[in-house]
Design goal:
Length: about 350
């Protein structure tokens, strides 16, 4: 079903995901969801990654739900979570500014006024903002950073798709000029809540990377078994064998890392944030390596637009920067272990 998404009705695919209960996996049962955990989400993410699913699953069913779990706003949860689980509402979370894909310590986007605040600023690399029904924006108010709900079609809001290497992953710039907004949760804890939501949502990103890397590896393996040159399958040549073996090692290691972090996060294991940082760095590099080597195994046909190989490398490059670069995660790992 996920494989149909690029060439079929995206709304129909989204409805099917809702009917299967996949949009409400993280949503508590009291709000119409399954009340499942990060391990289950990781399994789904692996399969969506294999198909390079282009819908807003990560932004809506994972990041937005985790953000609502991190902020103390029962009214907002009651209003939004059932709609997400039913597939009726798509949510985008806007936090990155400038050239960074991490939330800033002090957001430059400002929220002025009490009650209905007015937001001014620009957010970049916002996942699926152009298809969202609701935006959650990280901004700085008088009492510190906070999360604000914004209507993406309302006054003072401009959503512009960004040109990126991965055409299957929608990233947008969101410009706010006195946009009316409603505070979500208590003031002063916006950055903390957003960081916690990103950490837990990264489990799904790891699953996506691992699943896609495994699929790209299998694509190269199958081609090496069926492509004949000089009277024999190219997979019988030692150089190609080595490439396929290296791809298998990286893909399987990425799967192991992603599943370990999902289990550690679900259990709240001590030190799981260090494991997360290391896994995010490793899975990013592994997916890029497998995606590039897949193209190399395919040779000339792997460089063509019509062949799917380039799509996996494009997604690998995009995923590697989505919630912070591999180098940022390595530095975080050192901080987490006290080095």
């Amino acid at each position: 079903m996920a494989k149909r998404s690029p060439d079929s009705d995206p709304d129909g695919v989204w409805r099917e995901l809702a009917e299967m209960g996949l949009l409400g996996l993280l949503v508590p049962e009291e709000y119409g969801g399954a009340g499942a955990g990060l391990v289950e989400v990781g399994v789904v993410a692996e399969e969506l990654g294999r198909a390079l699913f282009a819908g807003p699953y990560l932004s809506t069913a994972v990041l937005a739900v985790n953000l609502l779990a991190a902020v103390d706003d029962p009214a907002q949860r009651e209003a939004v979570l059932p709609e997400i689980a039913a597939g009726r509402t798509r949510v985008a979370v806007a936090f990155a500014e400038g050239g960074s894909t991490r939330p800033p310590a002090t957001p430059a986007t400002s929220a002025a006024g009490s009650g209905t605040a007015l937001l001014t600023g620009e957010k970049r690399f916002v996942l699926d903002a152009d298809t969202a029904d609701l935006l959650y924006v990280l901004a700085t108010a008088e009492d510190g950073s906070g999360i604000f709900a914004v209507d993406p079609t309302g006054p003072g809001v401009t959503v512009e798709p960004m040109t990126t290497v991965d055409l299957s992953r929608r990233l947008c710039a969101v410009r706010l000029s006195g946009a009316p907004a409603t505070a979500v949760g208590a003031a002063g804890g916006g950055v903390t809540a957003l960081t916690d939501a990103l950490d837990r949502s990264a489990v799904a990103l790891l699953g996506e990377q691992a699943g896609a890397a495994r699929c790209a590896m299998e694509m190269a393996r199958d081609y090496a078994k069926t492509r004949y040159q000089f009277g024999r399958a190219i997979g019988s040549f030692q150089a190609v064998k080595h490439m396929c073996a290296d791809m298998l090692l990286e893909a399987e290691s990425a799967v192991s890392a992603a599943r370990h972090v999902a289990a550690a996060a679900a259990d709240g294991s001590q030190g799981w944030l260090a494991d997360l940082a290391l896994a995010q760095a490793y899975c990013s590099d592994a997916f890029v390596f497998v995606g590039a080597t897949n193209i190399q195994v395919h040779g000339g046909i792997g460089f063509t637009w019509e062949h799917p190989a380039h799509r996996y490398l494009r997604r690998a490059r995009s995923d590697a920067q989505l919630f912070g670069s591999p180098s940022w995660h390595r530095e975080r790992y050192l901080r987490e272990i006290g080095a």
